[in-house]
Amino acid sequence: MRQAYKDLDRLWRRGREFLGCEYAILGGAMSWVSERHLVAAISNAGGFGVLASGSMPPHLLEAEIAATKALTDKPFGVNLITMHPELDALIDVCGAAKIGHVVLAGGLPTAAAIKRIKDFGAKVVCFAPALVLAKKLVRAGADALVIEGAEAGGHIGPVSTSVLAQEILPTMAPQVPVFVAGGIGRGEAMLSYLEMGASGVQLGTRFVCAHECIAHPKFKQAFIRASARDAVTSVQIDPQFPVIPVRAIANAGTDRFMEVQREVIEKFHRGEVDQKSAQLEIEHFWAGALRRAVIDGDVENGSLMAGQSVGMVTSEQSVAAILEEVVGQALDAIEARSPAAASPESSQGVA
Ligand SMILES: Cc1cc2nc3c(=O)[nH]c(=O)nc-3n(C[C@H](O)[C@H](O)[C@H](O)COP(=O)(O)O)c2cc1C
Description:
By secondary structure, the chain is of the alpha/beta class. It is built from 13 helices and eleven strands. It has helices spanning 3-19, 36-44, 58-71, 87-96, 111-119, 131-139, 161-172, 187-195, 217-225, 252-269, 275-284, 289-294, 319-337, and strands spanning 25-27, 48-52, 77-81, 101-105, 123-127, 144-148, 154-155, 178-181, 200-203, 231-233, 246-249.
């Protein structure tokens, strides 16, 4: 076995043991994208797949978990959105299916939700957007944290991954496993976060163009064509009408969103709509837009949620090839520091 593999294993063993897989790499849940096929493929290839439940009702989540289990006997997690109106019922579905890890996303979870998950024996993973909240979540029972920077695809916070890592890892990594997400496209970046104390990483954008991913060919093509600077944050034009920041590849939809905001805000100033209705009209603009892009292939008007690492997505690959590439880059980086440690089989795969 390569010495570098042992070094990497020392860095992420805690994460691997927490997740129960070969590589401490989570496939970040992506609504519409992270369904049974991609999730099972990630877990089968040694990573840790996470099902995106998005706005699914409980019976659909139950069916998706069962379908995923039919494709893999490896562990995988379920991502639940904390503001889902049926959160308790979704947690119960995870409990009945003996899901080992539940990732809570989309706002701070209540201590009651965390407890409900722990009561059936699963590990709870929470997103921590700042150090003070990371401490609060661990006090409330979170078993592990994900810190996701603004480089990521989808809904994002304002702080970059590198700054969040510096802010949170020194304090929290000694307490619980912390997984770093956002903008990680290559193994060298993964390695640097592991060396800062992370137990593993979470990748989303890199997995979208996996062969096993069911995203529409046009959605994948948009990823392959895009460079980092194309993955931009949604722009809010008036502080009176907040827009949740979402990172996506710019298209006709993003231009139209600016026009709609302008039109609606003008209607508000003319007294034709009240503030609440105007805010709702703005919020509804993107309703169903991710599905339209991922499933229907409407890459002009749908939402092309993608992180800045989209520039490193240059072809369709199998999940196994993506994981081997990222892990291989980390191993090569370790070996490049101490050439003497490199063994003859260093260019023949990861183990
Ligand atoms: C198309 C897309 C959809 C996403 N949907 C979700 C989601 O439903 N729930 C969630 O917690 N994160 C979601 N994310 C974030 C990912 O889980 C992951 O944290 C992120 O993609 C990591 O950053 P990266 O894209 O730079 O790799 C989404 C990301 C993308 C690109």
